[in-house]
């Protein structure tokens, strides 16, 4: 096929993948909504249990009869407390994951055909880096989804990926073309691929940290005598989620260090004749590194776990997002022509 045909295929696949991710997001949103419905039905079942127990106590005449009838009522209510919505919730999760895989395949095809249309790696401008970085988010999620049981991240991941692809298609699109001279280097592959993969891991780690805070709050509510939504009960424990976020971010940090703070300056010296020039993108890349270094250092030396560590991880994610979007769109610098 000709480059023009590849470009047309890419321009078709990327919006299609966006729609599929959006449908997957709706499926995962239904999963969470069904979880709230399940806890409401469980609360109703508890009321029915109390009513049935009181009735049995009156008719039984003896405490033994009351206990027996109450036990039968409690058993029936326990069965009612696991409503059909729980099964529908699991089905919505499976459908969402399957749609995410379908969106990923189309997304991957769109990125590859964009590269074939341009005759180079497809991350030479903001549009291309956006579709590649969002692909990295999907890759990291799908790699870790089975190993660490990350199905609960489906809503957040599909929202982020669909939003980035939608923004790229509507506001950042640039026709496929040759690289500007400063980008025409093999360091482009090393620098940007490392930044994209680590950025995907930062995103996954940030989403886990957000859900950690929600789960930890729900666990505290249960200890105080409250209830927990079925969708939250399906999540791992807060402690397990805290450990998973640490593993993901510990994987991303050295990759970011190499790709951005080692390969980046080497490429800058080849392109601009200096290793470091305090360009806005360089400054915010360093700030991102400092925040995640603080996260790992605090966990290793000060023993920070839980909410404090999660807050740092979330702050690091927002710094990364600003570095990815805000610096390129709002600040003028040597990196303004591209997403890297």
UniProtKB/TrEMBL annotation:
Localisation: Membrane
Annotated Gene Ontology cellular component terms: plasma membrane
UniProt topology in membrane: Multi-pass membrane protein
InterPro entries found in the cross-reference section: Cyt_c_assembly, Cyt_c_biogenesis_CcsA, Cyt_c_biogenesis_CcsA/CcmC
Compositionally skewed regions (Low complexity) per UniProt: 69-81
GO molecular function term, any single one: heme binding
Membrane-crossing residue ranges in chain numbering: 12-34, 95-117, 129-145, 152-174, 186-214, 248-268, 283-300, 312-331
Keyword Transcription part of the UniProt annotation: no
Annotated spans, Disordered: 57-81
Keyword set, alphabetical order: Cytochrome c-type biogenesis, Membrane, Transmembrane, Transmembrane helix
Domain Cytochrome c assembly protein: 123-335
Keyword hit for Transmembrane helix: yes
One GO term of the biological process aspect: cytochrome complex assembly
Protein name as catalogued: Cytochrome c-type biogenesis protein CcsB
Record organism: Kribbella solani
């Amino acid at each position: 096929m000709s480059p023009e045909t590849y470009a047309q295929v890419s321009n078709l696949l990327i919006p299609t993948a966006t729609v599929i991710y959006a449908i997957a997001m709706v499926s995962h949103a239904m999963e969470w909504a069904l979880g709230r419905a399940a806890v409401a039905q469980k609360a109703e079942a508890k009321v029915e249990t109390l009513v049935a127990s009181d009735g049995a106590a009156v008719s039984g005449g003896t405490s033994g009869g009351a206990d027996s009838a109450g036990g039968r009522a409690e058993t029936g209510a326990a069965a009612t407390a696991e409503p059909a919505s729980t099964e529908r919730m699991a089905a919505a999760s499976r459908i969402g994951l399957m749609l995410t895989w379908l969106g990923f395949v189309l997304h991957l095809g769109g990125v590859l055909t964009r590269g074939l249309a341009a005759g180079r790696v497809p991350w030479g401008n903001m549009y291309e880096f956006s579709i590649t970085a969002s692909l990295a988010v999907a890759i990291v999620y799908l790699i870790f989804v089975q190993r660490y049981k990350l199905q609960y991240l489906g809503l957040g991941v599909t929202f982020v990926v669909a939003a980035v692809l939608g923004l790229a298609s509507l506001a950042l699109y640039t026709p496929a073309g040759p690289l500007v001279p400063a980008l025409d280097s093999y360091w482009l592959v090393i620098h940007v691929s490392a930044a994209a993969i680590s950025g995907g891991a930062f995103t996954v780690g940030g989403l886990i940290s957000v859900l950690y805070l929600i789960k930890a709050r729900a666990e505290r509510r249960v200890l105080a005598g409250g209830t927990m939504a079925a969708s939250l009960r399906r999540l791992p424990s807060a402690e397990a989620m805290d450990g998973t976020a640490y593993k993901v971010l510990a994987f991303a940090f050295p990759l970011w260090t190499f790709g951005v703070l080692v390969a980046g300056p080497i490429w800058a010296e080849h392109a601009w004749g200096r290793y470091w020039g305090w360009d806005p993108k360089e400054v915010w890349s360093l700030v991102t590194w400092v925040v995640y270094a603080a996260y790992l250092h605090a966990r290793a030396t000060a023993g920070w776990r839980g909410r404090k560590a999660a807050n740092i991880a979330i702050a690091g994610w927002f710094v990364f997002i600003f570095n990815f979007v805000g610096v390129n769109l709002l600040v003028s610098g040597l990196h303004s022509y591209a997403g890297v």
